[in-house]
Amino acid sequence: MNVTADLSGVISSGMCIGCGACEMADGSVKVQLNPRSLIYEPSSAGGAAAAAVCPAVSVDYRGLQEYLFPGAEAGPYGVVRSVHLAQSTDTERNVKASSGGLIKEILRSLLSSGDIDGVIALDHVDGIEFAARLVTDPDDVDNLPGSIYHNLLQTPALKLLRDTPGRLAVVAIPCQLEGLYSWVRANAPELREKIVMTIGLLCGWQYSHHSINAMGEYLGYDPADIADISYRGGGPVGKLTVRTRDGSEYSASRRVDFGYQVAFDRHFNTTRCHVCVNHGNFLADLVVGDAWLPSTVFTKTGISLVVCRTPFSESVLSRLVSSGACIATRVTDEEIRESQTDRVVFGEFAYAYAEHLRRLGGHVPELRGPNEGHGTPKPRRQVAKFHRELVRKQALMAARRYRYMKLRKATLELRGYVMRYVRWFLVRILRVKSLSGRRREIPREQLSGFR
Ligand SMILES: Cc1cc2nc3c(=O)[nH]c(=O)nc-3n(C[C@H](O)[C@H](O)[C@H](O)COP(=O)(O)OP(=O)(O)OC[C@H]3O[C@@H](n4cnc5c(N)ncnc54)[C@H](O)[C@@H]3O)c2cc1C
């Protein structure tokens, strides 16, 4: 049971993720952008009601899993019924989407079959502002954006859930669902009935708005002039594309552009991402992510990794396959691990970093997921070094010294930067793990129908 009195620790530690649960539970709190850190945070500390539902204070994973999937057993990947690789058979939809175009296919199917009356999903508002809106027409689903990686205020999703009658599906990142369900369970249990299905995104991290500002300096746009921004689409990795109000377009490859590697380095993440243990979205009925596997590197359009946690989510996926909207093949839980890495899936860095922050004193969210104890926590020396770097780089960001950060990456940080590519090449392309017998790849013929 969480006994924190208010959100003062969340504010002082900069751990807010913008889910908006505190605003819903405590009318005295407003979530707004901090002009220095460029992440959302509560304007005031509020009281115990706000703290009780805040995922930057604590998340009761065990209780929430029992609340959502009663009687199901949670393993290190949460509650898992089955894991699949899947892809939309509509090439255009697949190419436009972030990975396999699965989410759009699922939403279209849920709406056209009458399973639900509406979907609450993120859409573009203006500039770099995105907010949840209600979608009721299957043909409107394709207007939704792909993955948006910067920190957002997610309160509109909670308000829509509260104010919209009928049966709903919700698309959300993991921490957003942590806030949503903590608030629903504590303050609005009647809303649980409305949620027919949650479609979760796997999530490694999100970024503060400093990333967008830094890219502005590197690519030559003024962040104040942004009309629209997208991070994915056009292939499995995709590119960052920024359109400004005068019609100009600026883009950068997410895999090779050096400026992108600087501005979307993990030190630019929202602080809580570093202690997040729930990248696999333990609370979503069906989870979609990228299949980053040696056996899927051939794809030109993107393939999704899909985790089904409920019988209904499995039936929706098999309906999509039967109707020809998607192709899918069942794989083992091991593919979650391979695609996401142990560091992420088992919170190897997050648990060790949280421990380090506890030793330093100050506020640390209490996050103990079903994956705790399944990986090898990163050594103390490594997390201590990361912390020193983070403090230094957050100060550089606050001072808007983005050009200096680029120079730093090209000199002081060059070794780590190069090693990332070397690791990627060894594991994904040369398949060293399968060559050394540590892993069995998915047979090529099992993926023969995929693009
Ligand atoms: C912040 C973030 C981090 C991610 N990190 C990883 C990762 O580390 N590994 C991995 O495998 N996959 C990650 N993903 C998921 C991946 O990028 C794809 O979103 C996922 O594979 C679904 O692809 P799709 O082609 O089916 O969906 P798309 O057709 O691209 O649809 C995306 C859907 O997600 C919604 N959406 C987009 N951004 C957000 C957001 N910020 N908050 C809430 N809803 C949103 C949109 O409304 C849309 O409905 C991340 C996604 C996000 C948003």
Task: Present the secondary structure layout.
Layout: H1 8-13, H2 21-25, E1 31-33, E2 40-42, H3 48-53, E3 58-59, H4 61-68, E4 82-88, H5 91-96, H6 102-112, E5 118-126, E6 129-135, H7 155-163, E7 168-172, H8 174-187, E8 195-201, H9 210-219, E9 226-230, E10 239-244, E11 249-253, H10 258-263, E12 286-290, E13 304-308, H11 311-322, E14 326-331, H12 334-340, H13 342-345, H14 348-360, E15 366-367, H15 380-398, H16 402-410, H17 414-429, H18 432-435
Parallel strand pairs: 3-15, 5-7, 7-8, 8-12
Antiparallel strand pairs: 1-2, 4-13, 4-14, 5-6, 9-10, 10-11, 12-13
Helix pairs in contact: 14-15
This protein binds flavin-adenine dinucleotide.
Q: What would you say this structure looks like, in words?
A:
With 451 residues, the chain is α/β, with parallel strands linked by helices. It has one domain (59-451). It has 18 helices and 15 strands. It has helices at 8-13, 21-25, 48-53, 61-68, 91-96, 102-112, 155-163, 174-187, 210-219, 258-263, 311-322, 334-340, 342-345, 348-360, 380-398, 402-410, 414-429, 432-435, and strands spanning 31-33, 40-42, 58-59, 82-88, 118-126, 129-135, 168-172, 195-201, 226-230, 239-244, 249-253, 286-290, 304-308, 326-331, 366-367. The strands form four sheets. The protein has an eight-stranded mixed β-sheet, with helices on both faces. It has a three-stranded antiparallel β-sheet with strand order 9-10-11, with no helix packed on it. Strands 1-2 form a two-stranded antiparallel sheet. The longest helix has 19 residues, at 380-398. The protein is globular, with a radius of gyration of 21 Å. The N and C termini lie far apart (48 Å). The model has no long low-confidence stretch (mean pLDDT 93). The structure holds flavin-adenine dinucleotide (FAD). Flavin-adenine dinucleotide (FAD) is lined by residues 97-104, 121-122, 144-149, 152, 171-173, 176, 201-204, 206, 288-290, 304.
